[in-house]
Amino acid sequence: MLSKTGFDLWANDYDQTVQLSEESDLYPFAGYREILNTIFNEVMQINHSTVLDIGFGTGVLTNKLYENGHQMDGIDFSAKMIDIAQSKMPDANLIEYDFTKGLPNEVKEKKFNSIVSTYALHHLTDEAKVEFIKDLLDLLAENGKIYIGDIAFETREDLETCRNNHLQHWDEDEFYFVYEEISASLKGFCKCVFHPISHCGGVLIISK
Ligand SMILES: C[S@@+](CC[C@H](N)C(=O)[O-])C[C@H]1O[C@@H](n2cnc3c(N)ncnc32)[C@H](O)[C@@H]1O
């Protein structure tokens, strides 16, 4: 699993790495653009909304939303990623913070129409994901939704099939979403639906 320093070092080449993996339709980034576009189109249903992006990286999705008039807050622990993203979005509120420690006080005081996170929350264990999502639910404005685009599978069996097909590149330190498991853990707290998009990625939509 990459540390803060690892992400700092990756920041300048990040967009290119993603593009190569995506264009080859390979794990981990197969479907990347469609996943981000799906979330973009959902958030765009409300004009000039408030959006929190967790682990925004170079700001590919965040910046598209920013340019379309949304008020952006974001959390990321890589100072280098923040530099790149902030240079694109001078008025966005981008906070340097490690989400394994929960949420910074600054965002706890706010409410958001949408909370988005792409390719970041697989750094949390499955247990920690559930606790973090419960914390995020408290930040939603009325009818707000959480959109998680990530390496994700309908079942554990689908994950294992992908792992066996990509053994050389598989990152054993990351915890990918398994819809049938996370939806069972979140049952009773919120609604959760999954839209598979590529052989290794999709979008989870979570609402109260
Ligand atoms: C693979 S990149 C995804 C960037 C962007 N969301 C995208 O879809 O292209 C993961 C991002 O999450 C951030 N990140 C990873 N672990 C984090 C943590 N514990 N706290 C805050 N940010 C973290 C990294 O710094 C990086 O910018």
Describe the protein in words.
By secondary structure, the chain is an alpha/beta fold. It is 39% helix and 25% strand. It has a single domain, classed as Vaccinia Virus protein VP39 (Rossmann fold), CATH 3.40.50.150. The two termini are 31 Å apart. The mean pLDDT is 96. S-adenosylmethionine binds at residues 7, 55-57, 60, 75-78, 81, 98-100, 118-120, 123. Residues 7, 55-57, 60, 75-78, 81, 98-100, 118-120, 123 line the site of S-adenosylmethionine.
Reported for the largest beta sheet, the result is:
8 strands, mixed
CATH architecture: 3-Layer(aba) Sandwich
Strand content: 15-25%
Please, what is the CATH homologous superfamily?
A: Vaccinia Virus protein VP39
Count of structural domains: 1
What would the average pLDDT be, to the nearest integer?
96
Alpha carbon gap, first and last residue:
31 Å
CATH class descriptor? Alpha Beta
The total of beta strands comes to 8
Gyration radius, to the nearest Å? 16 Å
Which structural class best describes the helix and strand composition? alpha/beta
Shape: globular
- Low-pLDDT runs of 5+ residues are none
Helix content: 25-40%
Unique bound compounds: S-adenosylmethionine
* Annotated CATH topology: Rossmann fold
Order of helices and strands: HHHEHEHEHEHEHEHEE
Describe the structure in brief:
The chain is α/β, with parallel strands linked by helices and 208 residues long.
